[in-house]
Amino acid sequence: MNTESVVEFLGNVPLLQRLPSSSLKRIAEVVVFKRYERGDYVVRKNQDVDGVYFLLEGQAQVLRSAGEENSQQFLLKRFDFFGPGIFGDVYSADVVAVSELTCLLLMSDHRALLETKSVSDSDKERSLVEHILYLEPLDLNVFRGFTPPNAPTYGKVYGGQLVGQALAAASKTVENMKIVHNLHSYFLLVGEINIPIIFEVIRLRDGNNFATRRVDARQKGKTIFILFASFQRKQQGFIYQESIMPHTPAPEMLLPREEMLERRITDPLLPRDYRNKVATEINASFPIDIRFCEPNYSTEQTKSPPRLKYWFRAKGKLSDDDQALHRCVVAYASDLIFASISLNPHRREGMSVAALSLDHSMWFHRPLRADDWLLFVIVSPIASESRGFATGKMFNRKGELVVSLTQEAVLREAVTIKPSFGAKL
């Protein structure tokens, strides 16, 4: 099999479809052919990782724990792949050939060839999240926001982008000594990523110590999102804290989200279709560094408890110590994984579900830095009448409660949801 044929094969492997052709050629030059007879073990559970396997011909079976059904999702065929598990540099399961089998093995020494380069790694005056939050002033109370090409999108404007940009617009109309202390927002229509968003700020109140703003976000003349925000001049007062930060590993001891996703992609104990889907969806330019506290084998098709804990911070050093900027960045990050955890107890194999945010509220209790680690603790106490409700708390590394949050989302069993410019419900 010549190099050109190997490159053609590799181009059909879901894990590799995000790579440029030059990377595929380099991989083709270093992979090792491995052949097995029926019944041979390809790898053994807890065996040290020697690399990532790509199935060229034949089939292999992932052997799961006793009592677990070996469904078709764990029968590996041509173009499938597997590698190290999510908990370290060992294989998470036995993989055995169920026919004559030929694999291509990319040795661990060459795993760097699987990496994609992030757009956000290039030199910029602003971090990516600041670039996303940038607004162009059109009038005293009117601003224009954009969805940059390298911003995270999900077929529509990401909800956190609307919250962060609207809060940035409101903050620009308030004197510097007053800082946002709470916001309440409502998602009305799906936002289109290819056209600008106009943010109009209505000055509802300007008092000595407090100011209130309403922001209407519009596209094509329609209001797609509304935010109410209250700002307060710093004042001395009573202080106490009842909430206690849960014990978790330090963020430096946890894997970055991107590395964890890379491990999930190659872990044979996760369903094949899930791994293929994740392989095509990894966004190398996501502007927030996320570290999950409790890595597990849950997917969107397996039940799990309605709770989650993760550390997060903005990637790169933010260019300003201004609290307005840091709170806008936290608002941006807060919608990524929130009320969707209400779906966790209802997930099952073959079920397609979605959570669409309805409203989102935040209370800022203390000064914070969005480029330093914050622990986000999320619990969904109830889902009822097609709606899920979640509460969140954000702690700094000292254990101080800095933000409280709530969100409600509509929960749906899909039909595929196609982005369209229209009502969310």
TrEMBL record:
Belongs to the C/M/P thioester hydrolase family. Homotetramer. GO terms for biological process: acyl-CoA metabolic process; fatty acid catabolic process. Pathway: Lipid metabolism; fatty acid metabolism. One of its GO terms (cellular component) is peroxisomal matrix. Its EC number is 3.1.2.20. This is acyl-CoA hydrolase. It catalyses: a fatty acyl-CoA + H2O = a fatty acid + CoA + H(+).
